[in-house]
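Please decode residue identities from the backbone states below.
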């Protein structure tokens, strides 16, 4: 098996990963762990990349699930049972009792079984069949099947990719890729600069209209995080031919309504066929060149303010598993569909040293980027965080998205966590957000004025001072033993790593 897998990957690259994972879904005894492990090995010794392996393995898994879903949906039950009891069942290593077990899971948990059973060997493949038999809607089936696979590329992987790109020199390019900011800024006159950004992703909610709203709000947020006003938006659409186009119409309507709410215009877009539905926007905004917000520039003595509560990824995971309360689900939708327009309108009246929006890298990852860009240290006071309804409870239950673990891994070499910080609050800090709030650094007296304005605008219940900025290498009173005088600790390679973010109660 080992030699065969390596030979196929050496010959066909990512295509072999796709086909092997697809077959693994149809023939459960073939272990995906072997395929993915060797895929990782091939990224070192060939031109295969981690991103390619992840994308093609995800596509293969989805393709296999769709095939089995189609079998359950379109093949009569009596025919299907005869096949399983015969040679085909023996060839596929599918037993009738395995299918009955999967059906039991589906009857008991409904759609959440598709999400939960994808984590269980054998049953993870078979659960697609009763989903098809039950005529589960195709789009929710894809959403639950792909849950955990639709997050952003991990920040560490992304940083490695960006390092290989050529540099561009242009005096009018005020913000490029160097600082990992939310968008690019290009000056076109003395008093006007363009902000350009784009964002898109697969559905994370069942309602297509709500998904359109969330995706649009998330893309528009990057303009607000740079201090600009959105002006023109273009749709980005990937859509399976087999899915009813009326759902796409609802998605586009949700996005259009958010663009209109932002005061911008929707002027077209681009669409392609894809196995998994995806939607987002490319957005152009305007800003004065002297009033651009960047994620660098935070100064020692500043405090950090966040304009939305955290916990979106955790609550959405609970929703997918059908374990979230109606109240929690309603709040996470409210948070994700709320534009950061009001927050930006409040901030533009005050001096802001640094600003970003909190999205897929979580509060920890985006705070780390701000600290790195500002050559400072950021302390997050976890007890001051605003958290969405039941998010801490769901975190204690283990309903934590995979992206949170990637975010933790990316930041761990430059982060210190006070032992008094509970695990569930750590999970909140690493939790990837969708359409999260603005995180900005200002002087303490300015923060007080901003919070007063937020109260007058009726949004203060979501806002909170969540941390502070210290000089690089600054020592907290309860820093761990072993820190050097410059706030250094050893990373996994045994080399000194400067602490950039601290989590404290």
């Amino acid at each position: 098996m080992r030699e065969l897998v390596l030979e196929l990957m050496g010959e066909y690259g990512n295509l072999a990963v796709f086909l092997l994972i697809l077959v693994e879904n149809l023939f459960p005894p073939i272990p995906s762990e072997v395929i993915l492990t060797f895929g990782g090995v091939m990224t070192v010794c060939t031109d295969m990349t981690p991103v390619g392996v992840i994308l093609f393995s995800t596509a293969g898994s989805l393709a296999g699930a769709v095939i089995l879903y189609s079998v359950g949906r379109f093949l009569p039950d009596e025919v299907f049972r005869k096949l399983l009891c015969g040679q085909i069942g023996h060839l596929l290593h599918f037993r009738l009792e395995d299918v009955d077990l999967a059906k039991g899971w589906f009857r008991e948990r409904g759609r959440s079984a598709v999400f939960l059973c994808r984590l269980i060997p054998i049953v993870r493949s078979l659960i697609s069949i009763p989903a098809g038999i039950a005529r589960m809607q195709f789009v929710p089936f894809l959403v639950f099947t792909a849950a955990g696979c639709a997050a952003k590329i991990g920040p560490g992987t992304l940083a490695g990719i960006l390092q290989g790109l050529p540099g561009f020199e242009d005096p009018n390019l005020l913000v490029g890729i160097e600082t990992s900011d939310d968008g690019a800024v290009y000056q076109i006159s003395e008093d006007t600069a363009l902000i350009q950004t784009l964002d898109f992703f697969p559905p994370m909610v069942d309602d297509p209209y709500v998904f359109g709203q969330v995706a649009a709000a998330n893309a528009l947020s990057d303009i607000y995080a740079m201090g600009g006003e959105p002006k023109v938006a273009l749709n980005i659409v990937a859509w399976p031919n087999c899915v009813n186009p009326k759902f796409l119409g609802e998605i586009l309507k949700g996005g259009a309504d958010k663009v209109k709410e932002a005061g911008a215009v929707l002027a077209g877009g681009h669409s392609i066929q894809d196995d998994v539905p995806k939607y987002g926007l490319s957005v152009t905004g305007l800003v004065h060149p002297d009033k651009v917000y960047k994620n660098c520039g935070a100064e020692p003595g500043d405090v950090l303010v966040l304009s939305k509560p955290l916990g979106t990824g955790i609550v959405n995971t609970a929703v997918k598993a059908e374990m979230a309360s109606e109240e929690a689900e309603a709040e996470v939708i409210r948070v994700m569909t709320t534009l950061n327009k009001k927050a930006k309108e409040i901030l533009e009246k005050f001096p802001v040293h640094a600003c970003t929006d909190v999205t897929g890298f979580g509060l920890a990852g985006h705070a780390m980027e701000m600290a790195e860009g500002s050559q400072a240290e950021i302390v997050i006071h976890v007890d001051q965080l605003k958290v969405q309804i039941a998010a801490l409870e769901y975190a204690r239950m283990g309903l934590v998205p995979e992206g949170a673990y990637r975010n933790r891994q990316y930041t761990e070499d430059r982060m210190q966590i006070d032992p008094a910080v509970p695990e569930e609050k750590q999970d909140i800090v690493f939790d990837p957000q969708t359409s999260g709030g603005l995180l900005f650094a200002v002087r303490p007296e300015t923060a007080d004025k901003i919070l007063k304005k937020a109260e007058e605008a009726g949004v203060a219940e979501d806002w909170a001072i969540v941390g502070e900025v210290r000089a690089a290498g600054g020592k907290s009173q309860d820093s761990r033993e072993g820190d050097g005088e410059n706030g250094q600790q050893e990373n996994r390679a045994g080399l000194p790593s400067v602490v950039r973010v601290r989590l404290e109660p």
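Observation: The domain at 166-291 is CATH 3.30.1330.10 (60s Ribosomal Protein L30; Chain: A;).
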